[in-house]
């Protein structure tokens, strides 16, 4: 039963890559991108990434050159070898989202994780 569940997961991932990705994924590349909102105010850029079911301590946030990079992994927790998967629509595996930043000086605030959403404020510097 466990082998069947793993095979179904692999099939679902292959189908997802085939129909929703322009290129083939390499194992080290992310399997999915979380949706984000990017909202600018007079003093900051606020970015919210939707990451339900992803523990906050497994999320990495980095600023690399002119990009904000949010990455991590959502794992599928199957606790029984008798589990039967009837539908698998939520993406699992490694994720990464890159957001191009404007050419301003930005000072990152403390990330906030609440209700399955990660919010990062980048404050404009003078």
Automatic annotation (TrEMBL):
Signal peptide (residue range): none
Domain SHSP span(s) in chain numbering: 27-126
CDD domains: ACD_sHsps-like
Stored InterPro entries: A-crystallin/Hsp20_dom, HSP20-like_chaperone
Pfam families: HSP20 (PF00011)
Entry keyword set: Stress response
Similarity comment: Belongs to the small heat shock protein (HSP20) family.
Record's protein name: Heat shock protein Hsp20
Organism: Methylocaldum marinum
């Amino acid at each position: 039963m466990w082998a069947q569940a793993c095979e179904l997961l692999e099939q679902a991932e292959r189908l997802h890559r085939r129909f929703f990705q322009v290129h083939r994924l390499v194992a080290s590349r992310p399997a999915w991108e979380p949706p984000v909102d990017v909202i600018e105010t007079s003093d900051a850029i606020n970015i919210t990434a939707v990451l339900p079911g992803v523990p906050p301590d497994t999320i990495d946030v980095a600023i690399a050159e002119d990009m904000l990079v949010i990455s991590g992994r959502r794992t599928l927790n199957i606790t029984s070898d008798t589990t039967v998967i009837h539908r698998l629509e939520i993406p699992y595996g490694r994720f990464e989202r890159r957001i191009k930043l404007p050419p301003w000086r930005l000072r990152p605030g403390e990330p906030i994780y609440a209700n399955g959403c990660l919010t990062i404020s980048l404050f404009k510097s003078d």
